Amino acid sequence: MRLIIRDDANGASAYVANYIISRINTFHPTAENPFVLGLPTGSSPLGVYKILVEKYKAGLVSFENVITFNMDEYVGIPRDHSESYHTFMWKHFFSHVNIHPSNVHILNGNAPNLEAECVAYEDAIKRAGGIDLFLAGIGEDGHIAFNEPGSSLASRTRVKTLAYDTILANSRFFDHDISKVPRMALTVGVQTVLEAREVVVIILGQRKSLALQKCIEEGVNHMWTLSSLQLHPHPMIVVDEDATAELKVKTVKYFKSIEKVAMDAGFEQILPSKVRTGNGPIPQTKVDEVSSPTIHAPQPTTSRLLRATPATEYPIRSVSPDLVPDRMASRIPEPHLTDRLTPNPEQQTVQQNAITA
Q: What is the tens place of the pLDDT at every residue in 194-210?
């Protein structure tokens, strides 16, 4: 995991925007081979979008051959509502760059069948070839997209009930009126995000410092879904100084030293691309897969760790022995002991029959 720390929100936003531009330009997208970008909404990425627009107008990047998939959308509010995520994205980003509307994908929170909409969204991502880079923000409770505490780490795009804390936090966009905030949303799942080739998260402000600490210094926990990035091969978290308030000084110094070494060596992130590895063949990780995972031949644990495909065959099981009545008295070599203890089952049956007779 890479943790990039900048002095303030502007510095963090500039780093993320320039990194995205670098990845797009390095990819050299075409109509036949587009760059697929996952995008969030909320206050954290606003600075990133602003800089991306400025760089586009300066001719430093083109979005003509970029396909986008947004993380989420509210359920039940009109698409043209001032606080819908459709409106947010067109207001702050899409309407200012040369992206084709047909290449923009945002979940439809008013679809007649919401679950079918979620399935279709996953299929659209697969048809596009998967997401190359997923940009994300987080909530104060560490949720990524709308995968709030308790969400399955193997979750896919689905309908999600929002937590009260999220509703309360989002009320600032609805005139601070909680009653106006939607109670449900459509969201990509944790596993949907983890299957992107690269994940970049921007975290700003002290309010989110505890979530960052849980992700960086503690283990993977479905109560802090941001921590699932520990399972991704190419995650990057970009923060301002305020967001590091809960981190240990040693942790901050460690990640700053990593960045310094990387910059001195002339690279930022090792990725499986020709630009990073030269013009020769790109090395591929070889994994011997089995057609039917079993106890004797389990599926290898790789970056597909969280795929919800458990082994379907477990042919070898220990056989439970038949239960046999047993008493401790029968194990003690004292012939008259049984006379002084509770009668055995056979004697109990005889005595019971004698009483009833």
A: 999 999 999 999 999 99
Query: Which DSSP category does 310 fall into?
Result: -
d(CA 198, CA 25) in angstroms, rounded, equals: 15
Question: For residues 26, 27, 31 and 35, what is the CA-based torsion angle, rounded to 10 degrees?
Answer: -120
Could you say which of 73, 117, 122, 148 is catalytic? 148
143 is catalytic: yes
Which run of H or of E encompasses 240? Answer: strand 235-240
Residue 236 contacts residue 269 (beta carbons within 8 Å): yes
> Does 148 qualify as catalytic in the annotation?
yes
Please list, in sequence order, all residues whose beta carbon lies within 8 angstroms of the beta carbon of residue 285, skipping any fewer than 6 positions away. 302
Global model pTM greater than 0.70: yes
Q: Where are the domains of the chain?
A: 2-276
Task: Please pick, among 117, 122, 141, 240, the residue that the annotation labels catalytic.
Answer: 141
Of 46, 68, 11, 41, nearest to 144 (Cα)?
A: 41
Q: What's at 207, amino acid-wise?
A: R
Yes or no: domain 2-276 corresponds to CATH 3.20.20.70: no
Q: Find the distance separating the first CA and the last CA of the chain, reported in whole Å.
A: 80
- d(C-alpha 167, C-alpha 172), whole Å: 9
